[in-house]
């Protein structure tokens, strides 16, 4: 009986109806006639799960039998997006489910809209993790994604008088049909206290006597591969108070205090930190990091591996991939487990640890490199701090052997920084401990080697490698752009979805006028669909005759939303001043989507300015409706899936040398938008692939940025030198967008004139010139469509399947398990 196979419901409309009704009755506890839409959505999700269950259980069993090597992806963020359509597609159930629900008198589209996306990430890094686990499942590679089940994901953004106001994201409120809690597999995670040494039959050993602990309860989510029957696991941890924790206080008779203690423990997985580039060094954040990493490592060793597993062979069974520095505390944690708990010697444990970790860096901004004050780390994780100190001592000894007693070099390379306070440099720890270190685009990896981690690259040249990011074509083409997907399938057959280089086949069709017409019709239809969505959502209209010029990404000064604003204000200034006839302006709709970290004042002011410019430009009759600014609040994966397929122009305008890769840029190119962009991140590779004729390049190169910086950059010189720029900045300063109140946007303008860390003014002229080339190119719709097709045809490289192949070949060495 124990071996009885799990039986899937029959793959037929009747089978689906039966299973759906069963779930509605027995899981939701309602009859069809009494059910509301949310009951129906939950029963539908349950039904899809039921179809995937047999394979999920089988795949886990098979991996254990075959003793395969597993990729344990450690990430504090997974920006998953909605699950229903993805899982229906993977399981080939979309049509069956649609018909089955129709038989029950339900329109599946009404249920789709009820799903609140799990927004368990900030932006690129979290979405990348979601794309990677999709690709690994599709490629049948054993993978567990480990992370945190935040009760509140990324905040819901609203605008009040044009300013960002954050609301909590209560994504679990209406139930969470996609995950399975496993309280029996909980891990106890400890914090605080002290360490002591003791004699263990003649050898001195250390033990940690912690002060308090919480339970980490895993919630498993299915990660189905596309049409291959494979189902991998995403295991997210939730913090729950331990009984012991409660009891200690209960015994003292203080009930209120015991409840407070419970709240305290459960705070750990309460909320995602909404900063995406300037870590604040908050204690709770370190607690989150240790919480999920310790739970994950111990879960893998103690429950995934067989009980008697010889841990000296650990590197044969696992690679822990560190998604940025957020999980790097896992390095001393694995050392502690191997040494203190499993009785291994330091040198053996270190040799194993160095083979079990690899590190991906996602930034170039120095302020984004995570450091933890030694005080804080030592208070929370005293044993880990000791281990880090010893790793550092031995590492610095190695540096000395290699380079001599060069104090400057030793200070620069030390894992412990001294200024402005003693702190642990997590990127250095990861680099020393990892078998490999990678950047996320060619240029980024090069800059890592040459600048950010230069000394380390000199010491360990073979550690450094590049893996250019990618995106999953299942979600971002098949699901998000079904009309384009159909057109491609008709032209090339269905194989492209898992072999994206096949899009090359479209190159020839770019020459075919009939294909171009159909391609243009797809774009127009996607604009109409976006119009419907935005009208429903926010009551705004998208004019399908306009060029759709889109900039969607987190708001950060380095990404330079301000450059886009200056372009819009320049166009508006031309019309408002009478220098340009509205009739001579290319009709454009500018779409922004951007959340600002709640504590990032400048970013919030820029959001306010975008909204303010929009309300003036959109309502000025002199513009004759030829320019329109739309800024839908709460940009997220769900909205991205509607906006990106409708775009004509993709704005990728960061200062060269600042955007590690970008992944939105890839989504746009693959959906037939042309890019206006700097020579930064993966833009470099996009341009190389699609060709200069199909990409609008502007701005300084990274070396040019360096030169100008070294010379002493004075933004005011650019203001003086360019009348258009002067006009735009003066218009903002004049209060034209703030009802005459000159103080509102003064900090934004002064910042540009007197500081401008990201050289907006220096690139302004080049940007405006590039936008004029865009207008000229757009005037020839047929040529534009041809370029758009070539963008699609030549961007197959940016499939996350290719990224995964690169990780597997260069870093993981994990074959598929079929
Ligand atoms: C760290 C400590 C404390 C609080 C928050 C954080 C934190 C959280 C998220 C720091 C950074 C992030 C996210 C960074 C991110 O999304 N980086 C982007 O990663 C993409 C995938 O590689 C790249 O394409 C982008 O270029 C990069 O900006």
TrEMBL record:
Domain of life: Bacteria
Pfam family, one: Phosphorylase
Keywords: Carbohydrate metabolism, Glycosyltransferase, Pyridoxal phosphate, Transferase
Keyword RNA-binding attached: no
Enzyme Commission (EC) number: 2.4.1.1
SUPFAM superfamilies the record matches: UDP-Glycosyltransferase/glycogen phosphorylase
Catalytic activity, reaction form: [(1->4)-alpha-D-glucosyl](n) + phosphate = [(1->4)-alpha-D-glucosyl](n-1) + alpha-D-glucose 1-phosphate
Entries under PROSITE patterns matching the protein: PHOSPHORYLASE
Cofactor(s) this protein cannot do without: pyridoxal 5'-phosphate
InterPro entries: Glycg_phsphrylas, Glyco_trans_35, Pyridoxal_P_attach_site
NCBIfam families: P_ylase
Family: Belongs to the glycogen phosphorylase family.
Function noted in UniProt: Allosteric enzyme that catalyzes the rate-limiting step in glycogen catabolism, the phosphorolytic cleavage of glycogen to produce glucose-1-phosphate, and plays a central role in maintaining cellular and organismal glucose homeostasis.
Protein name per Swiss-Prot or TrEMBL: Alpha-1,4 glucan phosphorylase
